[in-house]
Amino acid sequence: MRRLPDSKPRTLAEQLPPLSDHEALVESNRCLYCYDAPCTHACPTHIDVPRFIKKIATANITGSARTILESNLMGATCARVCPVEELCEGACVLNAEHKPIMIGRLQRYAMDHVYDRGIDVFQPAAATGRRVAVIGAGPAGLSCAGELARRGHAVTVYEKRELGGGLSTYGIIVLREPVPVALAEVGMIARLGVKFITGADVSAAITGSDAVFIATGLGVSPALGIPGEELIADGLAIIEQSKLSPENLRIGKEVVVIGAGNTAIDCATVAKRSGAGRVTMVYRRTEREMTAYPHEYEFVKQEGVEFEFLAQPVAVVAERGVVTGLECIRIGLGSADASGRPSPEPIAGSNFVIAADMIVKAIGQQKPSIATALGLETDRGYIEVNDSLETSMPGIFAGGDCIRVQGAASTVMAAQDGRNAAAAIHRRLMPNG
21-116 maps to which CATH number? Predict the structure, then answer.
């Protein structure tokens, strides 16, 4: 049970401790090992949950990890960051009258077992002579690259950042996933024979490859278009600094976070746990329309974060370039807009100011620019793909957040996209098996 907020800043270290051997054994033996298990159906990657838990119960931990990785090469990340409350654990049949099985923590237990011991579960197949380029080293790109390498294809991953892992490395707070966990998965994919090129030129990836998989995620945060916006900090940049250079992180005493998605909640958590006395999240709709998961909303409230709903920023208030507040206007909700949510309608004369010495925006990300650069067809700015995840340009596939027109973008969905794309690419390159 989470503690109520107190006066001391809490650590940004990983929130949940690993299960001990005894705890994992006891928890795995609670599982009913359901036939046609609802938890497996609820998992986007369809991990055979009863099977991997049964292997833990019989002390076959490496076998358990193999079962997980057969369905999801990003098993260590997903064990930590998946919204299990909404997926596998939410579907557990023990939910009705008992506590659901701790599927996520058991999955982490199995994955930590192989990574801590340097066990490589898979080896690449014999070389096929086919070359595939993967653009982006996030979960979708890593998943696709690993699956293709397992099939014997020569894969090169082109990554613009210094480190692989995408948001797992740079954009998910340490409470959920420390950097070494993300980099361990990158290392596992590299040991399958995948080559990584950082600071990469996209044109180099397109030429000379038999197939291409685009997994670039999304771009930078869009502009708010309000006066003083240059004084607002970018949420993803704050999270990145909290992970890679926490000693340089500077957080205000009164912090306002603009947005109400999972990234905004992560930013508010970082601020609160880094010593901010007051953290307020500003959102132009109500809690019913928040894009954050319900369990994350409950979590951040217990952290002591406050909310200002039905409020839209209109200007940053500053003195001599120093932030002193955020001016907002009250909002009424009108008819549904293109997102299916009530459209925000400003109420004239209702302006007010929230005191702040730091403002952070976490309002989503811009659509992928690579689609325009390559002349790919798009749907509302996202790359358009068919059922095989192939784009309008034959031989070029895409997956992950850059195609997620509908539904919530998530690590587990990106991992499944990579797996599905790898299967489709393999069929294209090896039509006879």
Answer: 1.10.1060.10
Q: Give, as one character, the DSSP assignment of residue 380.
A: T
In tens, the pLDDT along 145-168 reads: 999 999 999 999 999 999 999 999
Q: Roughly how many angstroms between the first and final C-alpha of the chain, as a whole number?
A: 51
- 368, pLDDT greater than 70: yes
CB atoms within 10 A of CB 22: 8
3-class SS of residue 272: helix
Lowest mean pLDDT among 43-57, 266-280, 338-352: 338-352
For 260, 307, 314, 328, 353, the CA distances from 325, given in Å and listed in that order, are: 19, 15, 11, 10, 6
Question: pLDDT grade, residue 2 (50/70/90)?
Answer: very low
Question: Architecture of domain 131-219+366-429 in CATH?
Answer: 3-Layer(bba) Sandwich (3.50)
Decide: 288 and 295 in contact? Cβ < 8 Å: no
CATH 3.50.50.60 fits domain 229-361: yes
For the entire predicted model, the pTM comes to 0.93
